[in-house]
Amino acid sequence: MKGNKTTRREFLALASVGAVGACAALHPALARAAMMGGGTGGGGMGGTVSVVDPAPGGAFYDIPAAVKDASGVYELQVKQARLKVNGTAVTLLTYNGMYPGPMVTAAKGEKLKVRLVNMLPKTTATNILGHPRNITNLHTHGLHVSPSLMSDNVMRMAAPGATLDYEYDLSCEEPGHLNFYHPHVHGTVAEQYWGGLAGPLVIADDATSPLAGVETHVMMIKDLTIASGVPEPYTSTSQFMHGKEGKLVMINGRVNPVLNIRPGQVQRWQIVNACNARYLKLALDRHTMQLVGTDGGLLDRPYPLSTIILAPGERIDVLVKADQGGGAFKLLSLPYDRGGMSGLQQITLLTLAYSGLLMDDRIPATINPQAQRQTIDLAMLPRKQITLGMMMGKGYINGISFTGMNNCYTAMSMVGDYEVWEVYNNSGMDHPFHQHVNPCQVLSINGGDPGYASLYTTAPAWKDVVNIPKMGSATLLVPVRDYDGMTMFHCHIVEHEDIGMMGAWHLMSGPMGM
């Protein structure tokens, strides 16, 4: 990660708004990271940093578990609900009346069954992009499952009053794997997601995992702006070009909740960036975060980090040890310049408060011994070049703006192959590139944050979201395995997906050479 030397440019950018004083209460190393984040965190031009530091709120809220019915099905009812958010009444789109949606838990080898019931009101209204409102469906973001039939098939849709039954074969899933679920109807994803439709989906640990007995908290980080008792509406195509960032940044629907930890205790935090467009650069004052898992599952060992970038749609699994004796400490999102006229903010997300009797927990030395980077001769592998672009209110993949399956860029791959994907970003903002079904390993990243590139090009991490820096690129090793069918890849700034930065991926049956 970045060193401790502060450049003159970084210091001036911070001092111009008095942010040195705002950081003074932090540990010196974290204060330096906060000061340095605005100028170079995203490889941008720097600028004014604003500090959002709400007072500590209520106790940390663990998302309730979804409950199976008598036939073993999780039912998710999509409906409007009047809830309190940070003390303000707001009508949100919800799963089962909850914000975020309930936690769906399953195990490797299970047949996960979900029934989606669309209880939204019937309407003929369209959004400003011209797409019908209140049609929805379900995408299990991160699961390595079939994209066809009743599985993760985003071509299925439910109008108000309709029901969709899903069944996912988890025989190829990874234990201890954090995912989440949300809608995926092209043209309305951003509004429904912004309005509240997202929830966690966890594949349980193996009984022998060194993490199985660790106190665990799932954290859905989501932002929102409330206007007249509803999520602020989309009123211009420029909001789709930039991507929405909310005034409230919450963990599990709460602003700066207080999470208790016993001195000497180790906790596991499974974190989802469920924001539409906001990037997070996470840092925990005076503590090291031990990264033990990423989008695609658990790593071989803990990777100690002082900061880590989490693009929209990315997930991390970290261990935190209470090794500071006592006190209260802030989990921050430090300034990050993603481009596209986004603001530079330092935000307090959570307060970690020491409380209770002393413990003597240890960080496990080994997490998943099977995790490894792939060592393959790349010379003979099929290669794809994918270019992300934006122009005149539209997003593009290889020069084509997605409007439907009959008008999109389509990539074709043979099941059983490994492929090398070169993903280029020809725009002035970062794009989190997400591919369904098959996670990848990162071979190289050109541009952007050097710590992000160093981590994901060396750790045995499987990724289904990779940040492609503005005017930069990434090279990915993509295994095409286990499942055929038609699926998608797209930018996970979901507004960009809605305006066309999405392609179709045809997985074709062939010799299983893996």
UniProtKB/TrEMBL annotation:
PROSITE patterns: MULTICOPPER_OXIDASE2, PROKAR_LIPOPROTEIN, TAT. The keyword Ribosomal protein does not apply. The keyword Transferase does not apply. Residues 78-206, 244-331, 385-505 form the Plastocyanin-like domain. Residues 1-33 form the signal peptide. It comes from the Bacteria. PANTHER family: MULTI-COPPER OXIDASE, MULTICOPPER OXIDASE LPR1. Keywords: Iron, Iron-sulfur, Metal-binding, Oxidoreductase, Signal. InterPro entries: Cu-oxidase-like_N, Cu-oxidase_2nd, Cu-oxidase_C, Cu-oxidase_fam, Cu_oxidase_Cu_BS, Cupredoxin, TAT_signal. Pfam families: Cu-oxidase (PF00394), Cu-oxidase_2 (PF07731), Cu-oxidase_3 (PF07732). This is Multicopper oxidase domain-containing protein.
